[in-house]
Specification:
17 helices, mainly alpha, 1% strand, single chain
Amino acid sequence: MLKSLQSLRGIFAIMIFLHHFPVHGHGLFAAGGDCGVDFFIILSGFVMSAGYGKRAVESGFSYRRFMWRRIARLYPLHLLCIAIYLALYGWRIGLGAYATLVPNLLLLQSWIPVERFYFSGNAVSWCLSDFMFFYAVFPFLAMFYHQARKWFTATLIAVTAAYFAFIWLLPESLVTPLVYILPATRLLDFAGGMMLWRVFTAADTLLPAIRRCGYAIKSIAELAVVGVTAVACIYFEDVNPRFTLASYWWIPSALTILLFALNEKAGGGIVSKILSWKPLVTFGYVSFSFYMLHVLLISAYKLLLSATGIAEQPWIALPSLLAVTTLLSYVVYYRFEIPVSQKLNGKI
């Protein structure tokens, strides 16, 4: 993956962390969760198309091997996080809560539009349920695109139109489970990432012109795209949640991915240079571990406050908890996630 996109994974993971970090009963950065999740889903469609888009339609493609690699990447860390969750809460929850963990273990929880199911266990793992669905259908979407590009595009446009009608007609109680959580609905974000990859490859012809633009112009373009996301975050609370849960972020996320992917190949501007800083790139690699662990550590922080009666000191706790989560993410990534994934991949 390009360095800038790898670093952006880490930055958006921190935005999700700030969304969940509690300050006087509320998340510190309200827009960070929806924005970060949408970026990750669109980026996933973009990256999967880059790595497997053509391979998925070749005669030697193995669907079984492809899915096994995805399972080996996601599932061991998912199980580790469930174990941590049970260590924190296993003695506090009843039999009903244990029952909600069954679909969670199978990564099917996001298909059940009931909060105690889709946010069961390590609550952020609902996203893994979505990603496993995206991966399962990706080869078929790739084949559809390669065999009938015009029909694929027309279908995507028609489904998008139907999507906006669908989310507008939903009763309020079903907006979060069916707009934000449901894998079938979020597939539209993932497919958008696939189409974004096609736009990126088609834009390769523009690279000579972009290279000639000069460092200053490329820097201005990058700062403008960052500004688009910043403005979207500022006005986030003024927009209907039916949109901010997903579609509100499509354009900012797509612009961010496309601009930084093109600019990096063309030399990049000031933001690309910052994003190429090695510690940021490295943190991007551990961002999945960071994402999976952060809510569990925030929960441990809340339990500590409750058990000790210590007054909440968010501006002391925030950097401390961020540092601990980051450190533990590196340990889990290099000592658990990568070794286990490699071992499982060696079995097929």
